[in-house]
Every structure is written in C-alpha cells, then in structure tokens.
Amino acid sequence: MTGPLLALDGVSKSFGAVAALRDVRLELHAGEAHALVGENGAGKSTLVKILAGAHAPDAGTLTLDGEPLVFAGPADARAAGIAVIYQEPTLFPDLSVAENIFMGRQPLRGLRRIDAAEMRRRTAELFTRLGVHLDPDRPARGLSIADQQLVEIAKALSFDARVLVMDEPTAALSGVEVERLFAVARSLRDNGAAVLFISHRFDEVFALCQRITVMRDGQWVSTDLAGELTVDRVVRRMVGREVSSLFPKQDTEVREARLQLRNLTRAGVFEDVSFTVHSGEIVALAGLVGAGRSEVIRAVFGIDRYDSGQVIVEGRELGKGSPRAAIAAGLALVPEDRRQQGLVMELSVERNATLPRRWSLASLGLLFGAAERREARTWAERLQVKASRLSDPVSTLSGGNQQKVVLAKWLSTEPRVLIVDEPTRGIDVGTKAEVHRLLSSLAKDGVAVLMVSSELPEVLGMADRVLVMHEGRLAADIPRTEADEESVMLAATGQVSA
Amino acid sequence: EDETPSSTSSGGTGGGGIKSGLKVAFLPKQVNNPYFDTSDNKGGKVAVEEFKGVYSETGPSEASPSAQVSYINTLSQQGTNVIAVSANDKDAICGALKEARTAGAKVVTYDSDTKPECRDLFINQATSEGIAKVQIKLISDAIGPDGGEIAILSATANATNQNAWIEMMKQELAKPEYSKLKLVDTVYGDDDDQKSFQEAQGLLAKRPNLKGIISPTTVGVAAAGRYLSGSTYKGKVQLTGLGTPNQMRAYVKDGTVKAFALWNPADLGYLAAWAGAALASGLITGKEGDKFTAGKLGEFTVGKDATVLLGDPFTFKSDNIDQFNF
Amino acid sequence: MTGKVRALGTWDVVVLVALVLVVVIGASTIDGVASPRFWRFVTLEVIPIAIIALPMTLVVITGEIDLSVASVLGLTCAVMGDLWARGVTSLPLLVVLCLLLGAVAGAVNGLFVTVFGLPSLAVTIGTLALYRGLAYVALGDRAISDYPSSWTDSAVSAIPGLTIPWFILVVAALAVLFGVILHATPIGRGLYAMGNNAEAARFAGVAVARTKFWLFVATGTMASLAGVFWTFRFASARADNGNGLELAVVAAVLLGGVSIFGGRGGMIGVIGAVVLLSTLRNALQLAYVPANTLTIVTGSLLIASVVGPNVVGMARERLRRRRPA
Amino acid sequence: MTAVAERVESSAKTRITHKVFLVRELGILVALVLLIGITAITNPRFLSAQSVKDLLLGSTILAILATGQAIVVITRNVDLSVGSVLGLSAFLTGTLFLDHPGLPIPVVVLAGAALGAVCGAVNGALIAAARVPALVVTLGTLYVFRGIDYQWAKGKQINAADIPAAFLHLGTRTVLGVPVLTVFAVVVVLCAGYFLKSYRSGRELYAIGSDPTAARLSGIAVGRRVFAAFVASGALAGLAGVLYVARFGTLDANAGNGQELNVVAAVVVGGVAIFGGSGSVYGAALGAMLLTTIGSALPVLGTTPFWQRASVGALILAAIGLDRALSVRVAKQLGGAK
Ligand SMILES: Nc1ncnc2c1ncn2[C@@H]1O[C@H](COP(=O)(O)OP(=O)(O)OP(=O)(O)O)[C@@H](O)[C@H]1O
Ligand SMILES: Nc1ncnc2c1ncn2[C@@H]1O[C@H](COP(=O)(O)OP(=O)(O)OP(=O)(O)O)[C@@H](O)[C@H]1O
Ligand SMILES: [Mg+2]
Ligand SMILES: [Mg+2]
C-alpha cells in the first residue's frame, strides 16, 4: 500500500474552554472511502472544518501527498483539491442553483467573462448524474432541506476533487437519493479519490466505507477495516458502553382523541388531509421527501396558514396562524430545521430552552435569570446536553446537542400533543435511543405524539400507526401490525391508495 | 455716511469709553456659511480687535434653533460679555438668551432678529421696506414696462427675515406703478445650493410665462443665477435678489443678472460688535435715541424697538461690481 | 469571540466608565463643568433624545430601525401648533391628541413593516420624508410661539432645590419601565429572540409581527412625547423642529452597545451613551472646541465603540492562540 | 419506481419567474414613464428640450451615488458616508481649480475620484478588518468626513467665477441633446452593471450579500471583496463630487449634506434588497431617476412646496410596496415560503 493521500496528525483545536479536538490523527487513502463516526459533539464537524480550511488547528500537521500544508482559508483547501459538504447547507438563497454550484469557479469566456450557458449546461449534467430534477436557473431560496443537500452534493462533485469530505450528507435524504449519492461516491472513489464520510446511520457507513475511524470526546479512538468491525463494536467504541434496543416502543393503551385534522387543505401544497392522533399513541407520518409532511404540521402549529379544513385539539377548534394559540392549546412542535426554526443560535442554552415557557416562568409578569437557569438545568441534565456552560450561546454546541436543546425546550412545556419533525436527524445512536425512550415514555404518560420521520426503521420501530403521504395527500393509514417496509414504500411512491 | 457698503472713510473715534478685554462672541445661524464668515470673521473680529476685546465665533454646523440654544448656554457659562447672534428662530432661542442675560451677557442680534424682549439690540442690515422696495424696483426695471409673472425663491419656509421681506414685497407690488407685475409663486430652496438650484429649475418648468425671479437670499440667488446662465432661459427670464458680488460676478458679466442688492455683511458684523461693546461698557442701554460710535462706520442712533439700522441696501451692477471683493 | 466584549454586560461598564472619566476629567480641567447650571443644560438636552432612545433600543434589538422619529417629533410640534392656533387651549387635550398622533404615525410604520413585510430601514426613510412633509402641510411657514408662559416655564422648571428640570424624573420612570420590559419580562426575552432569529422565535410562540407592530407604535408615541416637550422647551412649534435628530438617537443607541443587526444590547449602556454624548459635547463646547471638531469627535466615538471591542477581542484571541496549549 | 420524477419544474414556469425578475427593473421604468407622461400631459413644457436636459442632469449625480451604494448594499452593507465624501471631493475639486488654475480637467476628475476612493478605503478597512457593522462605521465617518470638510473649508465658498469655464461647460454641454454629465453617468452605470453580472468577482459580491457565512466557507475572500465594494462606492461618490462642481459651480462645505438618505432611498426604490444579495445597479440608477423626476414633476404638477416633501415620502413607500408585491409573486411562483 502506498502512503496516505491526506493525513492529519496530532491535531488539536479548542474553542475557549472547550477542547473540541485533542491530538487527533486521520489518514485518507486514494481510492478508499473512510467513515468517521462518533457521538454528537465528538468533534467530527470540527475536524471537517479543519480539513476545509475554515478553522485553523491550534496544533498538529496536515499533509497532502506527504507535503505539509497550511490553509489560510477555505480557498486554499479548495485549491488543494479538497471538496467539502458541510453538515449545515451553505447556499446563497438569492443566487441561481447553477451559480451556487460554480461560485468562484464559473466557466469563463473571452475577457474573463462568465459563460452562463456553459455553467447551466454543466449544472444540468451534474443533476442528471445525481438524478436531481431541479432547474439550474432557479434561485436556491425556497429549496427544501433535501434539495439543498443535493445541490451541496452537486457542488462538491463539480470539483473533480481528490478528496471528498461529506459531513452527514444523508441526514436529510431518503433512500432513493442516498443510493444515487452512493453510486456517485463509489465511482469517484474508484477513480482514485479519497472519500471521508460522516454519518450516524451505520447501514450507510458499512455499505459505503472500507475503513472506519471512531472518535470520542474529541479524541481518536480507533481506525479499522470495516470488514473487521460490527455495528455493536463500533457503537461500544463510540459510546464507551453497551447500547440496548434502539426502538424500545412499549405498547400503551390508546385513549381519547387529542389532535384531529379535518380536510386540511392548502392549495398546491397539501390537500384534504384528515387524521386523528390519540392520547398515548405515537403516529408516524411517513413519505418521501417533499411529500408535504412538514407543511401539514407547520399549518397545524400555526406557522403557515391553510385554505380550508379544521384543526381540533381536545375537541376545541384551533385558530389559524398563531403558534401562541397552538402552544396554549397544549401543542409542541420540534421543527425539522433546528438552525433556522428550532433555535436562536446567538442566545444562550438556557434562554433557548425556556423560551416557550417564559410566560409561565415569570412571576407577577417579571422574569429573572434564576428561574430560567433552574428550569434549563433540570432539562439539560435529563437529556444529558453536553455544554460547558448553560449561559453559552447554543451555537457553540454540537449539532446533536443542539437537537437535544430543542427537545428540552418543548418537553418542558409539558405538551398534550407533541409533534416532532425528524426528531433524530443528526443524532448519535446513544442519544437516538434516549430520544426514542423519551417519546415512548411520553406516550405512556398520555401524550399524543405525531412524528414525521424519513427513517423507515425509526417509523416502523416507534409508531403505533403509520400515516403515509404522497404528493400532498394522505395515501395510507397502516396499523403497527401491518406496517412493514414494503407497505409503507408502496404507499409513499403512490402505488396504492388508502 | 458713505454710500458704498465697504465704507472706509469716515474714521470714528475708536475705542473711546469701551472697556477693554470684553469677551465678544459671534453666534451665526450656522458656521461654515460664507455669508457669516464674512460678517463675523471679516467684520466683527476687526471691530473687537479695534476695541481690544476678546473675539470668538462659535455655532452649530446646521442652521437649527435647538443647536443654537446649546451654544448660547455654553457662551453664558463661559462668562461672555457680548453675544452677537443671528437667530434661527425668533422664539425658540429666547429662553436661552434670557438665561444668558440673567448671567450678565449683553445680547445683540444681527441679520435675523428674535422677539424684542429677548435681546438688548437688533442690528438691522436694512429695513424690510428698504429691501422689499429695492428688490421690486430691480426686477421691474429688468423685466421692462410690459411686466409679467414673477416668483420668489426664498430660503427656508420658517426664516423670519425672509418672510418679513416677502410680506413687504407683496405690499410694494400692490402699488399702482407695479400693477403689471404679478407674483405667482413662492418656493423654498432651504438655503441649500442644490435644492435652490432644483427649485429654480422647477419654477421655469412649471411657469411658462415667468418673466422674473426674486431670490432674497445669497444661496438662492447664486443657485438661480447658475441655473439660468446654463439654460435657454438666460436673458429671457430676469433674476435679482440679495447676493454677494463674488458669487454673482460671473452672472452679471454674462448678462444673466442685470443688478442685485446687498449690504456689506462685514459692516454688519462690525457694527454688531461695536454696539454690543457699547452696551457692555454701559455707554448705552438700548433705549430709543441712544447714540454710540461704531469705529470707522461713525455714529449710530438706536431707533424704535431697540433697533439700529445699518443703512440702505446697495445695488450692484456690471459697472460697479468689480470694485468689491466679498 | 468578539461579540462577547459587547454581550456580557461588559460594554455597559465600558460606557459608564467612559462617562465617569469624562465627568471627572471635565470637572477638574474645564471651568463650569462642575457647576449645577452645566448639568441643567445637559439634562435639558438629554431629555428628548433619551425619550426616543428608550423605545428605539427595543426596536433595534428586534432587528428593526425607525428613522422617522425626528419627523414624528416635528409633525407633533406642527400639529400641536396648528391646533393651538385654531383655538384648542386645553393642555391635557392637546397632549392626548399629540400622543395619539404619534401612535398613529408609529402604527403606519408598523403596518408597513409587519403586514406588508417591508424592511423597516426603507419604510422609515419613506415616512421620514412623509411625516416631515405633513408637518409642513400642517404648519407651513408659520412658527407658533404664543403658548402661555406657564406651560413653557413648567416644562423646564427645576426640581425644587436643584437646577435639574423635573421632567427628567418622567424620563427616569420611563427608562425604568422600558429597562424592566427589556431585561426582566417574558416580552423582553421575546425581543432578543426575534432580533436574533425571527423564524425560530415564531416557532417558539413569540408573536413576532404583533410585538414589532406595537413597538413601532410605542416609538411613535414616545417621539411625539418628545415633540410635546420640545414645543414647550423651545416655546416654538415649527415644521422643522428636531430635524436630523434621528441620527443622534441612532448614534446613541449604537454607542450604547446595541447591535444594529438586533438581538444584542441593553438599556444601561444606551442611557449611559445618551448622557455620555451630551456631556462630552457640552464639556468640549465649554472648552472652546469648535463645532467642526465636535462633529469629528462624535463620529470617531461611534466608530471606536464598535471597532474597539472587536480589536480587543481579536487581540485576546491571538494571545490565547500564541500561548502553547 | 422513481417517485421524484414528479418534482421536475416545468421550464415554462421558470421562464415566467425570469420575466418577473426582469419586471423589477421594468416596473420602475414603467413608473418613470407614467410619471413623465402624466406630467407632460398636464404641462407640455415638461418635455421641452431644456426640461428634459434638466431632468437628465438632475438625476446624474444621484444615479452615480446610487450605483456605488447599490454595489455596497448588494454585499449586505450600507455606506451612509457618501454625502460627506461627495462634499470632501467637491471641495477638493474647487480648491484645486482655485490654487492651480491651469490643471488639466482629467487630472482634477481623477483627483476627486481618488480622494473618494481613499475615504472608501477607510470605511472598507474598518469594516473588513475589524469586522464591524457598516451602518455604524459609515454613520461615524459621515460625521468625521463632514467635520474634516468643514475644518478644511472654514466657511469658504467657491464660486463659479473661480472655476474654469471649460469645466463648467461640462455641466451644460450636450451631445445629441443628452448632457455630457449624463453620458458619463450612463457609462459608469453600464460598466458597473456589466461587471456585477458577468465577472466572478461581481457575482461574489452577490454571494457575500446573500449569505456571508456561506461565502466565507466557499473560499470567497469576503473581507477583500467588501473592502473593494467600499472603495468603489467611495470612488463613485468622489466622482459625483467632481460632477457636482461642474453642475452647480458654486459650492461650500455643505455640498451633499444629507444626501445619504436620498441615495439609500433611490437604491431601495430601485429594487435592490436592503439585506443584500439581489438587485442591480440599473435598478438603482432608475430609482435615482425616479426620485429626481418626482422632485421635478411635483412642482410642475402644481403641488405646493409643502405637499411636495410628503408626496416624495408617500411615493417611496408606494415604490417599495410595489417591489415587495412583485417579489412575493416571484416567491409564490417558486413554490417557496418567504
Ligand atoms: N464555534 C464553536 N465555538 C465553541 N465551541 C464549539 C464550536 N464549534 C464546535 N464547538 C464544540 O466542539 C465540540 C465538537 O463539536 P462538533 O460540531 O465537531 O461535533 P460533531 O462530532 O460534529 O457532532 P454532531 O454529530 O452532533 O454533528 C462540541 O463540544 C461543540 O460544542
Ligand atoms: N423551507 C421551505 N421553503 C420553501 N419550500 C419548501 C420548504 N421546505 C419544503 N418546501 C417545499 O414544499 C414541498 C413539500 O415539502 P416538505 O418539506 O413539506 O416535505 P416533507 O415530506 O416534509 O419532506 P422532508 O422530509 O424533507 O421534510 C416541497 O416541494 C418542498 O420543495
Ligand atoms: Mg457535526
Ligand atoms: Mg419535512
């Protein structure tokens, strides 16, 4: 075997008091896909940002082809042939999709002018390769998270990079798109590129990668050939302990109807959606990306307006367009995009965690920090949020820990109906089990849970009932006993109707 | 008294009876304004040096009464003996002036007055009647016997002196000899060069029959002159107003403007300083009939409402304009 | 990070320390700064700016801005003058009508911003021209000044035994009110949240649009309160009253540590900055510093207020980095 | 089994959105034409050669300022100091003519633009190096530059008589009925517009305004680009200062005072998003023309001076409201929220 294409050695990085990386090493070989796994906050994204030139390491060396490298910024890393898909999409909403892909590297014609036609052509080509159906000329604004992720992938591919780094690229994608992505990644790999792949989904890790590096608490734990590992061994190394059943859904008795949707319609988005969620029940809302699931629950929660239909909570009709009213009626929504919708990134963990409860925490209309701190600490401990101080901005937390803060924020309102949109997106195995246990016990305590999820195993493991949406309509309502991968997929792709 | 504004002949007695070391402060409507630069730094300052006082000029960089109040307060705290002020508002600065007078300062207004009870003396550059008369006469002469429509390009809508003059002009126009002149419009250039320029331009676009413009403000008349001289209306639409020779020279030379009027701003500041010094030295109290000597300008008498008149405005034409440089 | 220097209340301390320094150095080197009269004048100047700066702080923290405040002030003065000239002589009635007018003016701003979703910077540049224009429509070239002297005197009369005008007590009460709302109520929490991320705030049940709307109403109302004070203080209602005051208010709010992007800043810093700016200006004026230099000082201070903390932050970060880990 | 196939966006739909984008600038143009038309019907003299020339000349300086401002606003910044920079550069121009009467005109033009560029560089350096909000910095330099201008001018005034006739003729001469100054402005606007549209560095300005963090992560030299945008805005303000002298002849230290809000208004009316990332300098220039034309048309339409200011305010609101309505329609076309 030849030497590594890209190697990191002794890399450390800290943010203030937080040591995100300590003496980490990593070797990427040409023609090989390499997985990086670890709990939330283990330092994976930080490592990626060092590779991308977005962070400068405090210590350690980076070598490419045996040559030591120092990146002054992301431009240097690009120039060195490293393409990066960040965990959070980094698109320019006002620019066209094609420009997003080729920003800074647009094809040129005479007088160094941009060749827009050529750029469009190449974008279309990339999209064909990825099986994406987007108009290269449309602005990135308004793309769903999945589409944004696909554009990011197209961007990374357009580099013809020697090293392709992907930080949880599949978290927002459904099976079909993941397969396409893997096909492309494999062909890149086979053409001699090195691929670094980060994911919390082990099936994907094992399907794509030849070598797996495990990280824990900012430190390197192990690097092994995938063939020599099993999921259990990886998990044990990541978490440092045994993780039991991932989907501990306990059967609970189903009680009265809590949330009812009657013929909810929003022109062009969803149509005639009716279903009921009962107390003590977990109902999953499944479907392909873009089926309109998020749109439905946004409308229920009052974020968007709808054209006709009714939302009934515990027998009383809920007014349109007011999240406040929804919260007052006992609803809680854990949204799909935590960075934009779930959290106020610059505010502290404690302010975020107590935001929906700020009125009930106040006494005589006055609210002092102590009440919020107490409340936040309770929930942070319960959900094991890893943060150095609760008064730090939530932006300094790792993605998974941010997700926990969102959960804490809503669970603290003691909701009667909990709506969760992709609750475990980007969450590590240990925490995922924790979240599932939590949802399950909430249901047991009588909370009605409506869960939107694109992860089929999660849907099948957790749900008492599976609702499937297809193109804005409810396509199937499948009880737990009949729900399996095939029945859900058939409904989701519109091949059976309810 | 000499007829020309830049009188240098009749030498006064100098600092007779004036206390030395008087702190005299000039507070113009706005510093950075060339007109006040001339009146204060070329007139007032000369006078103060003559009677061996301590001269200073201070003031806001934008012409607002509230900003002026802050400077009056400062001056009164500094123990200024004479405050010569050109008021941005006849009422708004009264409170502050009263406090300053209580603190021992003598207040002389020049160029633009306050209410009489707020100051000790007003140095009037020319009577409103005098100004109105000469402006109407000049525009009438320029337009000729057939008369026609005229308009006024003023400074700000709230300028006390401007509004007084405009009022007097209307009365003057009512006289039979001006029956062919018709005042059709008054617009405001806010004493801003660009705005005045555009207002002049707007006037001509709007009033096809306009024959003449009167702009009783130095900024306005210069801007209007500049516009007319570069337009097809040059020579067809007449312009007069109150302007300084340096600003207007080019337009008089190229025929845009036949004649315009003004007093000598330097003399105005000079007189204000002497009057203030006479008050502060106890030579006069500001009652009607008081007499005092203002250096080279000679003797002045306090008139009604504690007002001292500088003289009649002077008319500048192509044959005399080169004798002046301010 | 660089934001920390401004965030953790440290900026409030910086502003207050600067204020104390100016007072101490001024009093010991400039004749008159120590005198009660100086403080009377400073207070009179502070009152209208502070009145407007209070709600403006909240508005800027939500990520919006209101540039029309000075025009609302002018419009209030003009309408009040016009009403007085038309024979409305009841003081309470005049004041109530004026405050109502300010509220309506603010509501128009709020409507454009929240219902039509337009950027407040653009909207209030428009209403800046609109309200000032309406002031001219109402009053034209008149200046109304024949208010009873009992009114005009009482506005600036001093607290018995002091030289400080009593009206500052009203301002102080309002400052406490706005400060408490911002820092110690659920509403305040919502303001910071929407200033940082309006969408996330909405998801958390903050009524973003409604809150912003009422903030604009409050700003309009307070601006017209400042207008009422202005009218009496200067005993003169003119259409151009308070021209350009908006920049002074915004400058004070920014110097007080409020981030122009919203979500950050506090009331103590802003009040400190309002007083600091007026004190510094008056003290320098007393020291015969010309107006032109004052202009430069004001501008430099504003720049220093944002550049300073960031440079300190960056230097700290660099030092930390240089120390071997 | 490909379920995603349904999500293909029909190209017809996209073409409509393209059209609507174009409409943004077109809308302002239509408003402009309407305004001129109505005014001309009321008073035909509004379209006389002289009047048209005045209209064009009147918009020239604001249009150049708006072009510079648009470049800055596109990067999600703002330059409030342009009025003061204009004042400084105008005074420099006047002083140069006063002190060196023989100086060739191009040298003076370059000197004015260079002084503006230096001011812009001061802004840009503070903003890019210290990473502080542009609004605060340029509000500060608005005061600082104006203060320097005052200090320098000390109440002096420069009169038409001090300025070479050849230079003043620049302000009045026309080519085929179009004033030379306007030709100047048109060239500037077209160059800037083409640069922003067709060059990488131009597109990067849009990217920065659209999402500064993403721009940094994509390897765009954000600081350097923002710096350059401010230098450009400063240089254009400096150029505007030179043209100001050519046009008005008389000037003191107050030249350009208070222009900043007009310029920002022109840019916003011209459809440039105040939060960056979209809009064009053509729109900004048209916005400047629209504002100036409103200012000239209102007196012609017989609006009293007191109503004029109010009408300008109302029209600014109307213009941005219209623009918003249009962009909401675009957003709807794309099926996206907000
Ligand atoms: N900008 C920052 N400032 C302060 N701390 C940070 C910053 N970025 C990351 N951290 C901290 O560094 C640690 C590692 O974070 P990182 O994002 O690398 O985790 P991760 O492994 O990618 O987790 P996840 O699986 O949740 O994405 C975390 O404790 C996080 O709080
Ligand atoms: N934030 C958004 N802004 C605008 N349009 C969106 C947004 N999110 C989704 N869409 C669009 O709305 C439609 C429905 O998407 P939605 O997100 O509701 O689907 P979903 O089934 O919830 O998928 P996902 O699993 O990605 O959440 C899609 O066409 C998508 O492009
Ligand atoms: Mg991560
Ligand atoms: Mg969704």
Automatic annotation (TrEMBL), chain A:
Organism: Dactylosporangium sucinum
Molecular function as annotated in GO: ATP binding; ATP hydrolysis activity
Protein name: Ribose import ATP-binding protein RbsA
Pfam families named in the record: ABC_tran
UniProt keyword Nucleotide-binding present: yes
Domain ABC transporter: 6-242, 254-496
The encoding gene: rbsA
Localization: Cell membrane
GO cellular component terms attached to this protein's record: plasma membrane
Membrane topology according to the record: Peripheral membrane protein
InterPro entries: AAA+_ATPase, ABC_carbohydrate_import_ATPase, ABC_transporter-like_ATP-bd, ABC_transporter-like_CS, P-loop_NTPase
PANTHER family hit by this protein: CARBOHYDRATE TRANSPORT ATP-BINDING PROTEIN MG119-RELATED, D-ALLOSE IMPORT ATP-BINDING PROTEIN ALSA-RELATED
UniProtKB keywords: ATP-binding, Cell membrane, Membrane, Nucleotide-binding, Repeat, Sugar transport, Translocase, Transport
Superkingdom of origin: Bacteria
UniProtKB/TrEMBL annotation, chain C:
Single GO molecular function: transmembrane transporter activity
Superkingdom of source: Bacteria
Record Pfam families: BPD_transp_2
Record has NAD as a keyword: no
Protein's cellular compartments: Cell membrane
UniProt topology in membrane: Multi-pass membrane protein
Sequence intervals crossing the membrane: 13-34, 41-61, 91-112, 118-139, 159-184, 213-235, 247-277, 289-313
Cellular component GO terms, alphabetical: plasma membrane
Assigned keywords, A-Z: Cell inner membrane, Cell membrane, Membrane, Transmembrane, Transmembrane helix, Transport
Protein name: Autoinducer 2 import system permease protein LsrD
Organism: Dactylosporangium sucinum
Gene name tied to this protein: rhaQ
From TrEMBL, chain D:
Presence of keyword Transport: yes
Main location as per UniProt: membrane
Alphabetical UniProt keywords: Cell inner membrane, Cell membrane, Membrane, Transmembrane, Transmembrane helix, Transport
GO function terms (MF aspect): transmembrane transporter activity
Bilayer topology term: Multi-pass membrane protein
Keyword Membrane annotated: yes
Record localization: Cell membrane
GO CC terms of this entry: plasma membrane
Regions crossing the membrane: 20-43, 55-74, 80-98, 105-130, 176-196, 226-246, 258-275
Role of this protein: Part of the ABC transporter complex LsrABCD involved in autoinducer 2 (AI-2) import. Probably responsible for the translocation of the substrate across the membrane.
Known partners and oligomeric status: The complex is composed of two ATP-binding proteins (LsrA), two transmembrane proteins (LsrC and LsrD) and a solute-binding protein (LsrB).
Protein name: Autoinducer 2 import system permease protein LsrC
